[in-house]
Amino acid sequence: MADTAWQWDETLYAGSASHYSSGRMAYPPSLADALGKELGLDGTGRLLDVGCGPGSLTLLLAPLFDAAVGVDADEGMLTEARRRAGEVGATTIEWRHLRAEALPAGLGTFRVATFAQSFHWMDRSLVARRVRDMLAPGGAWVHVSANTHQGVADDETLPYPRPPWRQIDELVASYLGPVRRAGRGWLPAGTPGGEEAIMRQVGFTGPTRIEVSGGAVAERGVDEIVSAVFSLSSSAPHLFADRLPAFEADLRRLLSEAAREGRFAERRRDVAVAIWRP
Q1: Taking the model in full, what pTM does it have?
Q2: S-S: 265 plus which of 55, 158, 176, 198, CB 3.0-4.6 Å?
Q3: What's the CATH class of domain 17-277?
Q4: Which sequence spans correspond to the domains of the chain?
Protein backbone atom coordinates (compact mmCIF):
# COMPACT_ATOMS: atom_id res chain seq x y z
CA MET A 1 0.00 0.00 0.00
CA ALA A 2 2.01 2.93 -1.31
CA ASP A 3 -0.50 5.68 -0.70
CA THR A 4 -3.16 5.82 2.01
CA ALA A 5 -4.64 9.14 0.86
CA TRP A 6 -8.26 8.46 -0.06
CA GLN A 7 -10.16 9.88 -3.00
CA TRP A 8 -13.69 9.02 -4.01
CA ASP A 9 -14.11 6.66 -6.93
CA GLU A 10 -17.11 5.02 -8.53
CA THR A 11 -16.35 1.58 -7.06
CA LEU A 12 -17.06 2.73 -3.49
CA TYR A 13 -20.23 0.63 -3.19
CA ALA A 14 -19.85 -1.51 -6.32
CA GLY A 15 -21.98 -4.62 -5.95
CA SER A 16 -23.49 -3.53 -2.62
CA ALA A 17 -26.83 -2.09 -3.71
CA SER A 18 -28.73 -5.37 -3.94
CA HIS A 19 -27.70 -6.21 -0.37
CA TYR A 20 -29.23 -3.13 1.24
CA SER A 21 -32.86 -4.20 1.39
CA SER A 22 -32.18 -7.23 3.54
CA GLY A 23 -28.80 -6.31 5.01
CA ARG A 24 -29.61 -2.89 6.49
CA MET A 25 -32.27 -2.49 9.14
CA ALA A 26 -34.95 0.01 8.13
CA TYR A 27 -35.19 3.48 9.65
CA PRO A 28 -38.06 3.50 12.18
CA PRO A 29 -41.33 5.10 10.99
CA SER A 30 -41.09 7.34 14.06
CA LEU A 31 -38.20 9.13 12.32
CA ALA A 32 -40.64 10.53 9.75
CA ASP A 33 -43.06 11.47 12.51
CA ALA A 34 -40.35 13.30 14.47
CA LEU A 35 -39.07 15.22 11.45
CA GLY A 36 -42.57 16.08 10.33
CA LYS A 37 -43.35 17.55 13.74
CA GLU A 38 -40.02 19.36 14.17
CA LEU A 39 -40.08 20.94 10.68
CA GLY A 40 -43.83 21.46 10.38
CA LEU A 41 -44.02 19.30 7.27
CA ASP A 42 -47.50 19.27 5.79
CA GLY A 43 -47.24 17.47 2.46
CA THR A 44 -46.03 20.51 0.55
CA GLY A 45 -42.62 21.50 -0.82
CA ARG A 46 -39.86 19.31 -2.17
CA LEU A 47 -37.31 16.97 -0.56
CA LEU A 48 -33.72 16.54 -1.78
CA ASP A 49 -32.02 13.38 -0.47
CA VAL A 50 -28.29 13.62 -1.23
CA GLY A 51 -26.40 10.34 -1.36
CA CYS A 52 -29.75 8.58 -1.26
CA GLY A 53 -28.37 5.09 -1.88
CA PRO A 54 -31.22 2.63 -2.47
CA GLY A 55 -33.77 5.16 -1.24
CA SER A 56 -34.14 4.00 2.36
CA LEU A 57 -34.68 7.49 3.75
CA THR A 58 -36.17 8.98 0.57
CA LEU A 59 -39.02 6.49 0.53
CA LEU A 60 -39.73 7.01 4.22
CA LEU A 61 -39.93 10.81 3.99
CA ALA A 62 -41.40 11.33 0.51
CA PRO A 63 -45.04 11.22 1.73
CA LEU A 64 -44.32 14.37 3.78
CA PHE A 65 -43.71 16.41 0.58
CA ASP A 66 -45.26 17.16 -2.80
CA ALA A 67 -42.24 15.66 -4.54
CA ALA A 68 -38.77 14.30 -3.80
CA VAL A 69 -35.48 13.94 -5.63
CA GLY A 70 -32.96 11.26 -4.69
CA VAL A 71 -29.40 11.87 -5.86
CA ASP A 72 -26.62 9.28 -5.83
CA ALA A 73 -23.31 8.69 -7.60
CA ASP A 74 -23.84 4.91 -7.83
CA GLU A 75 -26.13 3.78 -10.64
CA GLY A 76 -26.64 0.42 -8.96
CA MET A 77 -28.04 2.14 -5.88
CA LEU A 78 -30.52 4.06 -8.01
CA THR A 79 -31.59 0.89 -9.81
CA GLU A 80 -32.38 -0.60 -6.40
CA ALA A 81 -34.14 2.60 -5.33
CA ARG A 82 -36.37 2.54 -8.41
CA ARG A 83 -37.18 -1.12 -7.78
CA ARG A 84 -38.15 -0.43 -4.18
CA ALA A 85 -40.20 2.61 -5.17
CA GLY A 86 -42.08 0.49 -7.68
CA GLU A 87 -42.84 -2.12 -5.05
CA VAL A 88 -44.55 0.42 -2.80
CA GLY A 89 -46.13 2.50 -5.58
CA ALA A 90 -44.11 5.65 -4.80
CA THR A 91 -44.64 7.89 -7.84
CA THR A 92 -43.56 11.33 -6.59
CA ILE A 93 -39.80 10.62 -6.46
CA GLU A 94 -37.27 11.44 -9.20
CA TRP A 95 -33.97 9.55 -9.08
CA ARG A 96 -30.88 11.30 -10.46
CA HIS A 97 -27.47 9.76 -11.13
CA LEU A 98 -24.89 12.38 -10.19
CA ARG A 99 -22.33 13.22 -7.56
CA ALA A 100 -23.28 15.69 -4.87
CA GLU A 101 -20.43 17.90 -6.04
CA ALA A 102 -22.30 18.40 -9.34
CA LEU A 103 -25.25 20.09 -7.62
CA PRO A 104 -27.33 22.19 -8.16
CA ALA A 105 -27.59 20.47 -11.57
CA GLY A 106 -30.71 22.45 -12.47
CA LEU A 107 -32.79 20.71 -9.81
CA GLY A 108 -34.32 23.89 -8.38
CA THR A 109 -35.05 24.67 -4.74
CA PHE A 110 -36.13 22.46 -1.87
CA ARG A 111 -37.83 22.74 1.48
CA VAL A 112 -35.57 20.11 3.07
CA ALA A 113 -32.26 18.50 2.09
CA THR A 114 -31.32 15.27 3.83
CA PHE A 115 -27.99 13.47 4.20
CA ALA A 116 -28.14 10.01 5.75
CA GLN A 117 -24.79 8.27 6.29
CA SER A 118 -23.48 10.00 3.16
CA PHE A 119 -21.96 13.43 3.84
CA HIS A 120 -18.56 12.07 4.91
CA TRP A 121 -17.95 10.70 1.40
CA MET A 122 -18.19 14.15 -0.21
CA ASP A 123 -16.23 17.36 -0.63
CA ARG A 124 -18.14 18.63 2.35
CA SER A 125 -17.43 22.36 2.15
CA LEU A 126 -18.32 22.47 -1.53
CA VAL A 127 -21.48 20.41 -1.13
CA ALA A 128 -22.62 22.34 1.93
CA ARG A 129 -22.31 25.67 0.08
CA ARG A 130 -24.15 24.41 -2.96
CA VAL A 131 -26.98 22.76 -1.05
CA ARG A 132 -27.38 25.83 1.18
CA ASP A 133 -28.15 27.86 -1.94
CA MET A 134 -30.71 25.25 -3.04
CA LEU A 135 -32.82 25.60 0.11
CA ALA A 136 -35.99 27.66 -0.14
CA PRO A 137 -36.57 30.42 2.45
CA GLY A 138 -37.19 28.73 5.78
CA GLY A 139 -35.64 25.50 4.50
CA ALA A 140 -33.56 23.05 6.50
CA TRP A 141 -30.62 20.69 6.10
CA VAL A 142 -31.14 17.39 7.96
CA HIS A 143 -28.23 15.10 8.82
CA VAL A 144 -29.28 11.58 9.86
CA SER A 145 -26.75 9.40 11.70
CA ALA A 146 -27.47 5.76 12.40
CA ASN A 147 -25.66 2.48 12.17
CA THR A 148 -28.24 0.38 10.36
CA HIS A 149 -26.14 -2.68 9.51
CA GLN A 150 -25.70 -3.80 13.12
CA GLY A 151 -27.51 -3.31 16.39
CA VAL A 152 -26.68 -2.31 19.94
CA ALA A 153 -23.85 -4.13 21.69
CA ASP A 154 -24.84 -4.53 25.35
CA ASP A 155 -25.74 -7.20 27.90
CA GLU A 156 -29.47 -7.31 27.18
CA THR A 157 -30.93 -10.80 27.02
CA LEU A 158 -32.28 -11.42 23.52
CA PRO A 159 -34.23 -14.32 22.02
CA TYR A 160 -31.30 -15.34 19.78
CA PRO A 161 -27.53 -14.75 19.80
CA ARG A 162 -26.15 -11.49 18.50
CA PRO A 163 -24.25 -11.68 15.21
CA PRO A 164 -20.52 -12.20 15.91
CA TRP A 165 -19.45 -8.80 14.60
CA ARG A 166 -15.95 -8.88 16.07
CA GLN A 167 -15.22 -12.21 14.39
CA ILE A 168 -16.78 -10.92 11.18
CA ASP A 169 -14.44 -7.92 11.23
CA GLU A 170 -11.49 -10.23 11.82
CA LEU A 171 -12.53 -12.39 8.88
CA VAL A 172 -12.81 -9.36 6.60
CA ALA A 173 -9.36 -8.21 7.71
CA SER A 174 -7.88 -11.64 7.01
CA TYR A 175 -8.96 -11.24 3.38
CA LEU A 176 -8.54 -7.49 2.83
CA GLY A 177 -5.87 -6.52 5.34
CA PRO A 178 -6.05 -4.58 8.62
CA VAL A 179 -6.57 -1.12 7.07
CA ARG A 180 -10.14 -0.21 6.18
CA ARG A 181 -10.83 -0.34 2.46
CA ALA A 182 -13.08 2.10 0.58
CA GLY A 183 -13.38 1.98 -3.20
CA ARG A 184 -9.92 1.64 -4.72
CA GLY A 185 -8.28 3.26 -1.70
CA TRP A 186 -7.89 2.95 2.05
CA LEU A 187 -9.15 4.84 5.10
CA PRO A 188 -6.55 4.24 7.83
CA ALA A 189 -8.14 6.85 10.12
CA GLY A 190 -11.75 6.16 9.16
CA THR A 191 -14.15 8.69 7.69
CA PRO A 192 -13.56 12.38 8.55
CA GLY A 193 -15.20 14.33 11.37
CA GLY A 194 -15.53 18.04 12.02
CA GLU A 195 -18.94 18.39 10.38
CA GLU A 196 -20.16 21.14 12.72
CA ALA A 197 -17.24 23.46 11.94
CA ILE A 198 -17.79 23.01 8.22
CA MET A 199 -21.50 23.76 8.47
CA ARG A 200 -20.90 26.97 10.40
CA GLN A 201 -18.11 28.07 8.06
CA VAL A 202 -20.43 27.94 5.06
CA GLY A 203 -23.25 29.85 6.74
CA PHE A 204 -25.50 27.40 8.60
CA THR A 205 -26.80 27.89 12.13
CA GLY A 206 -27.66 25.22 14.65
CA PRO A 207 -27.89 22.42 15.00
CA THR A 208 -31.17 21.44 16.58
CA ARG A 209 -30.77 17.86 17.73
CA ILE A 210 -33.37 15.16 18.10
CA GLU A 211 -32.99 11.47 18.84
CA VAL A 212 -35.37 8.80 17.67
CA SER A 213 -35.58 5.39 19.30
CA GLY A 214 -34.42 2.58 17.06
CA GLY A 215 -37.42 0.56 18.13
CA ALA A 216 -37.90 -3.13 18.78
CA VAL A 217 -35.50 -6.03 18.65
CA ALA A 218 -34.89 -7.29 15.12
CA GLU A 219 -34.54 -10.99 14.39
CA ARG A 220 -32.16 -11.59 11.49
CA GLY A 221 -31.18 -14.66 9.50
CA VAL A 222 -27.79 -15.72 8.15
CA ASP A 223 -28.60 -14.36 4.69
CA GLU A 224 -29.44 -10.96 6.19
CA ILE A 225 -26.12 -10.73 8.02
CA VAL A 226 -24.23 -11.76 4.88
CA SER A 227 -25.98 -8.94 3.05
CA ALA A 228 -25.20 -6.54 5.90
CA VAL A 229 -21.50 -7.27 5.46
CA PHE A 230 -21.66 -6.80 1.68
CA SER A 231 -23.63 -3.56 2.09
CA LEU A 232 -20.58 -1.86 3.63
CA SER A 233 -18.03 0.14 1.64
CA SER A 234 -15.30 -1.58 3.67
CA SER A 235 -16.40 -5.05 2.57
CA ALA A 236 -18.20 -4.39 -0.73
CA PRO A 237 -18.22 -7.48 -2.96
CA HIS A 238 -15.78 -6.09 -5.55
CA LEU A 239 -13.01 -5.75 -2.95
CA PHE A 240 -12.65 -9.53 -2.69
CA ALA A 241 -12.18 -10.00 -6.46
CA ASP A 242 -11.72 -13.71 -7.28
CA ARG A 243 -11.66 -14.57 -3.56
CA LEU A 244 -15.31 -13.54 -3.13
CA PRO A 245 -16.72 -17.12 -3.19
CA ALA A 246 -14.16 -18.27 -0.61
CA PHE A 247 -14.87 -15.29 1.66
CA GLU A 248 -18.63 -15.79 1.46
CA ALA A 249 -18.24 -19.50 2.24
CA ASP A 250 -16.11 -18.69 5.29
CA LEU A 251 -18.56 -16.00 6.39
CA ARG A 252 -21.54 -18.31 6.11
CA ARG A 253 -19.69 -21.01 8.04
CA LEU A 254 -18.91 -18.54 10.85
CA LEU A 255 -22.50 -17.33 10.99
CA SER A 256 -24.04 -20.79 10.87
CA GLU A 257 -21.91 -21.88 13.82
CA ALA A 258 -22.82 -18.76 15.83
CA ALA A 259 -26.55 -18.72 15.11
CA ARG A 260 -29.28 -20.66 16.87
CA GLU A 261 -31.76 -22.27 14.51
CA GLY A 262 -30.25 -20.06 11.81
CA ARG A 263 -31.30 -16.87 13.61
CA PHE A 264 -29.74 -13.86 15.34
CA ALA A 265 -31.27 -10.99 17.28
CA GLU A 266 -30.22 -7.35 17.75
CA ARG A 267 -31.83 -4.25 19.18
CA ARG A 268 -31.93 -1.51 16.58
CA ARG A 269 -29.78 1.52 17.31
CA ASP A 270 -31.24 4.95 18.03
CA VAL A 271 -31.18 7.49 15.20
CA ALA A 272 -29.47 10.85 15.80
CA VAL A 273 -30.70 13.83 13.77
CA ALA A 274 -29.03 17.24 13.42
CA ILE A 275 -31.06 20.02 11.78
CA TRP A 276 -29.21 23.00 10.33
CA ARG A 277 -30.66 26.18 8.86
CA PRO A 278 -29.07 28.75 6.54
Answers
A1: 0.94
A2: 158
A3: alpha beta
A4: 17-277
